[in-house]
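Q: Could you fold this chain for me?
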Amino acid sequence: MTAPLDLAGLRTALPVRPGGILFATVSGAHLYGFPSRDSDVDLRGVHLLPLADLVGLREPEETTTRMWEQDGVEMDLVTHDLRKFVRLMLRRNGYVLEQLLSPLVVATTDVHAELVALAPGVLTSHHAHHYRGFARTQWRLFEKTAELKPLLYTFRALLTGLHLMRSGEVEAHLPTLVGQLDTPGYLPDLIAAKAEAEHGPAALHDEERVRTDVEILHTVLEEAQKATGLPDEPSAFDDLDRLVTRARLDYAAGAAHGTAH
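A: Sure. Below is the predicted structure, expressed as structure tokens.
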């Protein structure tokens, strides 16, 4: 068993920056439900650039990355400026939606809550393409390395996509998906094995069966996409546009009065 995350401790380690961090959540293996003893902690979120950074001659720092070690564990924080993050949301990017909707919340604000409320308005049938593509990439990595991690990522992506097409909800936690969907019976054992090592081998009794199961899930996901009730296009563009504009102007007004954080 891996130790539970200290979300409060992670919160104190977040950097202070102009405009502030609008939210930060835990992504990666911890979110997906199969962290290892030696897994790093993937923190993802959104920061807010001051208005002056967007109107000057210099290119704005829309994406920032910071890595550090805390209590012997490697931390990896990546944040996007609010406008860039929202644009990614509107591009049918399941990855950023998983970050936004992660239940492992390290830092939050009212803007975060508004983004969460608007998230259903960006879900479309085309998110299935994202999950099938990600699964194919991870499967190729598994074939190259024979590691358990990319194999679990393959199943996780396919099952998240399938659940989304059927329910209209983003669920990234693999053990939860296993409990809700018709999945191969060996998945719980693979999840348990992953807890021992981040880059351990996939000890499979029948690799051909696993290959067949992955191919079947691709087919099932494609069929679910055809039958889904999700729309073809997002409906939340205008609401998100107003949110981005208001957040930027509110920060600019706060900075002018010395109350921005």
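A (continued): DSSP finds twelve helices and five strands in the chain.
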